């Protein structure tokens, strides 16, 4: 059976990727990263999603605490506040990269996921990047994914042997509403997910991630199943 590594955060997008990978017939190998994020609650969500798909035995949690030591992001540095409604414009309107961007995060995630994929014999890596309804992060763009895929092809044994690992980005050109609709079609367990940057049992509804998620559900004409303050 063909195998795929899924970079799983426990959020809406990555969990939708799990649904896509399963629908495509892949044996799922989820990998989650503890990078010192203030919303560590998502790690429990990722485990719950892996359990839902019956792949808890293949679930991997990788420690990347040094990203918190580096700081430089509202998600890893307690001295930087997570922006809320009224203080942080929607990124594509502001034309700026928000302070919730974590330097080098997806580059690290994909590098480590590549190692995992090559080890287990996976031919694909799924990642929930999106370049339409997203937070304006540079490591969510198609050109970034294309370049990393090129590097993987020349930097791995499997790539040199002519069987490169592909990076699958099924959400990259979808709106948040389309992502929600597709997830609901595939019975993705959104009730097990979280998107809030503040990492509390109830989502704040005010941070950029919550706002994008709520916008997606509203435009899809559906109710978000997770609790909000």
Secondary structure layout:
Blueprint: E1 3-7, H1 12-23, E2 27-34, H2 41-52, E3 60-63, H3 66-70, H4 91-94, H5 105-120, E4 124-126, H6 142-155, H7 157-160, E5 166-168, H8 176-185, H9 208-220
Parallel strand pairs: 1-2, 1-4, 2-3, 4-5
Helix pairs in contact: 1-8, 8-9
Strand order in space, largest sheet: 3-2-1-4-5
Global mean pLDDT: 93
Q: Structural class, judged by helices and strands?
A: alpha/beta
Major sheet description: 5 strands, parallel
Keywords:
9 helices; ligase; Rossmann fold; alpha/beta; queuosine biosynthesis; 5-stranded parallel sheet; Rossmann-like_a/b/a_fold; nucleotide-binding; 229 residues; zinc; globular
Question: How would you summarize this macromolecular structure in one to three sentences?
Answer:
This protein is an alpha/beta fold and 229 residues long.
Q: How would you describe this protein?
A:
The protein has helices at residues 12-23, 41-52, 66-70, 91-94, 105-120, 142-155, 157-160, 176-185, 208-220, and strands at 3-7, 27-34, 60-63, 124-126, 166-168. Helix 1 (12-23) crosses helix 8 (176-185) and helix 8 packs across helix 9 (208-220). The protein has a five-stranded parallel sheet with strand order 3-2-1-4-5, sandwiched between helices. It starts with a strand and ends in a 9-residue tail after the last helix. Mean pLDDT is 93; it is low at 87-94. Helix content is 39%, strand content 10%. The protein is built from nine helices and five strands. It is globular, with a radius of gyration of 17 Å. The longest helix has 16 residues, at 105-120. It has one domain: 3-Layer(aba) Sandwich (Rossmann fold), CATH 3.40.50.620. The protein is an alpha/beta fold. Strand 1 (3-7), helix 1 (12-23) and strand 2 form a beta-alpha-beta unit.
């Amino acid at each position: 059976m063909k195998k795929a590594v899924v970079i799983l955060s426990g959020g809406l997008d990555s969990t939708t990727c799990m649904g896509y990978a399963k629908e495509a017939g892949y044996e799922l190998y989820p990998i989650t990263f503890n990078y010192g994020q203030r919303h560590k609650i998502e790690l429990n969500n990722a485990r719950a999603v892996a359990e839902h798909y019956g792949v808890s035995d293949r679930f991997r949690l990788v420690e990347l605490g040094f990203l918190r030591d580096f700081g430089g992001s509202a998600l890893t540095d307690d001295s930087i506040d997570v922006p809320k409604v009224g203080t942080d414009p929607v990124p594509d309107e502001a034309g700026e990269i928000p302070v919730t961007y974590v330097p080098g995060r997806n580059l690290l995630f994909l590098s480590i996921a590549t190692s995992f994929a090559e080890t287990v014999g996976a031919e694909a890596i799924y990642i929930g990047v999106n370049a339409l309804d997203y937070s304006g992060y540079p490591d969510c763009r198609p050109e970034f994914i294309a370049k990393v895929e090129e590097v993987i092809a020349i930097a791995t044994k499997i790539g040199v042997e002519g069987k490169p690992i592909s990076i699958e980005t099924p959400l990259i050109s979808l709106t948040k509403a389309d992502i929600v609709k597709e997830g609901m079609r595939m019975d993705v367990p959104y009730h097990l997910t979280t998107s809030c940057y503040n990492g509390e049992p109830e989502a704040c509804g005010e941070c950029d991630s919550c706002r994008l998620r709520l916008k997606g559900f509203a435009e899809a004409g559906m109710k978000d199943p997770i609790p909000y303050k």
